[in-house]
Amino acid sequence: MSYLQPWMLWALPAVLLPLIIHLLNRLRYKTVHWAAMLFLLQADRSATRRAKIRQYLLLACRMLAILFLIWAMARPLMGGWLGSTAGGAPEAVIILLDRSASMEARAGGRPESKREHALALLAQAAKQNQGSRFALIENVLREPLELASAATLPSLQMAGPTDTAADLPAMLRAALDYLTKNNPGGAELWVASDLQASNWRPESAEWQDIAARFAGLRQAVRVRVLDLSAPPGTNISVLLKAADLRARDAQSGAARLTLGLELRAAGEHPATVPLLVTRDGTTSQVDLTLNAAIQRETLKFDLPKLAPGWGQVELPADDTPSDNAAYYVVSPPAAQHAAIVGDGPAALRLRFAAAPDKTRTDRVASVFSPANANGIDWRNTALLVWAAPTPSAEMEKTLEGWVENGGWLLAFPPGGEAGPGPLGLHWGATENAAHDAPFRIAAWDDLDGPLARAESGTPLPLARMDIARRQLPSAGDTGHVFASFADGRPFLVGGKRIAGRVFACATQPDQEWSSLGEGVVLLPMVQRLLALAGQRFSPPTMATAGEWSPPDSHEIWTSLDPAQRRDWRWQAGIYHSGDQMIALNRPAIEDLPEIVDRARLPDLLHGVKLTVMAGAMEIKADNLQSEIWPAMVMVTMAFLCAEMLLATSRALLPRRSSFPAAPRKPSRPHAPAASRS
Amino acid sequence: MSRLTVSVRLPMLGSVTGLHRSATRGSSVEFAEYRKYAPGDDLKFLDWRVFARTDRFYMKEFEADTNLRAYVVLDTSASMKFTSGRFTRFDYARRIAATLSHLLVHQGDAAGLVCFTDKTLRELPPRRTPTHLRQILDTLSNAQPQGETNLVSTLHGLAERIRQRSLVILISDLFTEIPGLLECFKHLRFYKHDVAVFHLLDRQEFEFDFSRPVRFVDMETGVDLITDPSVVRDAYLDALERYLSTLAHGCREFDVDYHLAYLDQSYEGVLTQFLLKRIKRMKGGKK
Q: Are A499 and A405 in contact (CB under 8 A)?
């Protein structure tokens, strides 16, 4: 037996209160000079055993009533038949509903989506636990919502479809917070999910923490997982990877819209699918030939003028309607300024890397000598490339303020001995490689960051770079190593500085140092850094549903199509607020088909009573611990009633023979007195 | 109440003429019975009418009226100090004693007083004079309840000492063993004394309405007992009930005029009831 409020057991000595009061009362007697001792001594001798037993029973009833009251207040939990008899249904049932985009898939030939099917099963199962308190935690807000009746679950707005992703570990943490805060007795967690691996993140270290928190709960909690991982019959999904609007001809003002799509096909599907492309309300059809399960397509549309626009791409209906559409909003690119501080050919190469096409107005790069660095237009500069010796103290202070306001800095080594670099960077001593054994880069982060793969999936040729000279950077403990040499030393490090970021590269784009200046690595690296750094100068036009929120919470964002009542908090679409527009799409991870093997769930929730059910919720009585305080309160009431009966009635004592009542004092002074003669 | 008289239920043997029926035949106008003529009888009591009808000689006899000798026996033990109200039991008892003495002397009867504890403390023989009444009242006024009771030996001694038929009025709480007490009554009745008993009880003794534990101290012996009244109350009331029932039954058996009085009752009312009842019984007896 365990207790939810074990500190209440400290009050157990209060059980002795009736006994202490009884003894104190006996000690606090009053003295009476009595004449009729003859009868009193007889009565004391013959004070019946039953009267004493009655006294003892009274004391016992009072002590037991207090005992059970304190026991009930400690909220004991008990398993087995006693727990199930006294406790009944779990006090709380927390429903964790995965209503991510993937839950809109229809599987098993059912007409309803997995989410709708789950809601129907949950509502049906809730009828078996009428006495329980239900709370809903869904994946968008992750705020527990108390349900007046679980039967209303299918009609709840908060159980409706979304275009968001689910974070199951975060939802379980929210449920654990709820359990810790409300401290119910017996509790069950009903998880309805399609077990999508991208939502469950089984490799995450969070699961150990979650299992530990379950083990730390005072009450035993059962987790029932409703497995809805059956794959849909046929599905083709479209994901908009990029939407780019650029000037095509500076003189005519013509523009080109480029849409980067990713198509995923599962099950039996036609070889060619018609894709409806909508641009500013005008729809056209593009027939796409599907050659692979995952296929990338780039659609280019020539536009007569460079102007903001919006639209969507849409596939024909299939078993997963939520992944058939993607939305975009494009606007003319804003000019992104880069400043290069340095001398010589390395500075020129860096300027070329920042602004390779002089005809494009969205990339502007300027070279400043270290002496003229004060002339940089700090307000409009997105990226500063520092390929010069350590800045002066005054320049250091200026750089610090600029980075803290969101500026991005890329530093290259100055050469020479070890020494400090800009903004707290530290350079090691210059190292020269052997003539026939240049330094090689062996590992780098090709998933994210400035060295990520190209859109086509081709990795950057970092491994082929020849590096003859290097000067190792150190960005402190908070720095992230994006690439490292074969000997494990860092090639490119970077870290966050309040609103901005600072990166440091171990070699210069100079022929004497390395082949970095050839551009195959330098160009995409600088371009990506410049694009990311320039984002702060132009508001985003595309974001992920469920992750985006208005920059100003007072702004009202509504769907561009007034016929569709969409909520930007969880639904994809095009929204606008005044002149601002944004396209929200479902998260890319919702298209990933991998699911968590149900046999792995017990490992994730190690030590937790877990039941995985497929297709139906079978709620059966088990040996879960239940709270038995209601039974304790009933026992307390029973003892109090017994005490009341004992104290007020003499049913247990032999009835005395009739005893003539003594005459009361007459109201008139000379009224006849009673006589017994 | 001064217009009421103290009457007796039995013929008395007084020394002078009085209000009460005598055990001997006398010269009053009230016919008693006939008896056969015997030589030497005064012929003026011969009933000539009967002789004319039957030719036999019958003598008419008449009731004799005599005076009364009354003993007021007052318990002055320490238990008589008990009270839960304004007056102690002893105050109540001596008011009854004084009133009865006053009535007796003023109706020409002799009143005596016996104050006792475990022994006879003071005994005033019955006399009819106002001076004697004052002496009784002085004795009552000065008496203080103290010591233990020995009611049985006192009453037996009194029964032996009284030589003439008398009215014995006992005023006490009667907290003694019933069999011994009834033996006393039997003893008194054997000598043809008219016995009346005023049994004085306090309301608290009757109801025993204590709520908290109490240390009871015997007023006579000092013996104490700590007990929870709620535990012993019923047994106490049972014992008291048995005691009162046995006493009342014994008094009826020995023709003792028993009166139970509570201290919160008016003593005038109790006495009036007592006197009226005796007067009524006396008239009924004459019929």
A: yes
What distance in Å separates the CA atoms of residue A281 and residue A65, rounded to the nearest whole number?
76
What percent of chain A has pLDDT above 90? 38
Angle between helices B229-253 and A37-45 (to 10 degrees): 120
What element of type H or E holds B180?
A: helix B178-190
What residues of chain A, 595 to 654, have a C-beta less than 8 Å from chain B?
A: 650, 653
- pLDDT bucket at A444, cuts 50 / 70 / 90: very high
Cβ contacts (< 8 Å) between B277 and chain A: which residues? 675, 677
List the beta bridge partners of residue A419.
Answer: A427
- pLDDT score of A87: 55
Contact B232 A36 (CB under 8 A): no
Chain A contact present for B212, CB below 8 A: yes
Q: Which chain A residue's Cα is nearest to B240?
A: A39
Gap between the Cα atoms of A148 and B53, Å rounded: 119
* Domains, chain A, with CATH or none: 2-77+631-648 (no CATH), 96-231+599-624 (3.40.50.410), 235-333+539-591 (2.60.40.10), 336-537 (3.40.50.880)
A314 within 8 A of A325, measured Cβ to Cβ: yes
Tell me which H or E stretch contains A225: strand A221-227
User: At how many degrees (to 10) do helices A49-73 and B229-253 cross?
Assistant: 160
Q: Do A673 and B89 touch (CB under 8 A)?
A: no
pLDDT in tens, A47-82: 656 677 888 888 999 999 999 999 888 877 765 555
Helix (H) or strand (E) holding A494: strand A490-497
For residue B272, report the phi and psi dihedrals to the nearest 5 degrees: -60, -45
The span from the CA of A350 to the CA of A341, in Å, is: 10
Q: Give Cα separations from A523 to A241, A447, A460, A472, A513 (angstroms).
A: 21, 17, 10, 21, 17
Q: Residue A98 pLDDT more than 80? A: yes
> pLDDT per residue over A648-677, tens digit each?
765 444 444 434 444 554 333 333 333 333
- Supply the ipTM of this predicted assembly: 0.78
Q: Global pTM? A: 0.52
The 10s digit of each residue's pLDDT in B53-111 is: 998 888 887 665 666 888 999 999 999 999 888 889 999 999 999 999 998 888 878 88
H/E/C letters for each residue in A290-344?
CCCCEEEEEEEEEECCCCCEEEEEECCCCCCHHHCEEEEEECCCCCEEEEEEECH
What residues contact A90, with CB distance under 8 A and at least 6 apart?
A: A129, A132, A184, A185, A186, A187, A188, A222, A624, A626
- Of chain B, the end-to-end C-alpha distance in Å amounts to 25
Closest CA–CA distance from residue A62 to any residue of chain B (Å)? 17
Using alpha carbons only, how large is chain B's radius of gyration in Å?
A: 23
Given CB atoms, is A21 within the 8 Å cutoff of chain B? no
Closest by Cα among B227, B100, B236, B190 to A36:
B236
User: Among all residues of chain B, which has the CA nearest to that of A673?
Assistant: B270
Q: Which of A22, A27, A40 would best serve as a mutation to test chain B binding (most B beta carbons within 10 A)? A: A40
Cβ neighbours around A395 below 10 Å, total: 18
- For residue A607 the two structure tokens come to 């030590």
Residue type, A631: A
- Cα–Cα separations (whole angstroms), residue A421 to A387, A503, A608: 10, 11, 52
State yes or no: pLDDT of A83 exceeds 80.
no
Q: Hey, are the CB atoms on B225 and A676 less than 8 Å from each other?
A: no
Joined together, the tokens standing for residue A178 give 């709820």
Answer yes or no: are the C-beta atoms of B50 and B17 closer than 8 Å. Answer: no
Structure tokens of A613? 């059910």
pLDDT at B4: 67
